[in-house]
Amino acid sequence: MGASKKLKVAVLFVLQALLLVFAAFCMFYGQDNFVIRSAGIFAIFAGLALARITRRMRFGAPLQSKPPFVVKRWQWLVGAALVILLVVSYAWLFHAAAPSYKGGPAPLWYFLAAILACGAWWSGLFIRWFVWWFL
Predict the structure, then answer these.
(1) pLDDT, tens only, 99-116
(2) Domain ranges, ordered by start, for the chain
């Protein structure tokens, strides 16, 4: 790695650190201000983009043989159905809890099962995307 390449990598590391410090400052002091929090979130994303650029500079471009990440139509449909099931079970739980909750434990169990199913499905898709993106 040449001296100019090392300097570029060092400058990018410093910019990442400054962006993340700025983001932390925005998140801490801008708790009640949407614009400041949004600027902090934007700084986080910019810092992550710089981290990706720095990694490419240091280790070279990644291999292009990686297949594209594709979520099939049936996976979206199952995910949407699980979200609808979650909303329906939440409405049933809310309806059962409104008159001092005299309906028994069934709405609660259905809601918990919907949370587990929906969370497992969407976290599986997210983990697959995360592994594809970063590895």
Answers:
(1) 777 778 888 999 999 999
(2) 3-59, 73-134
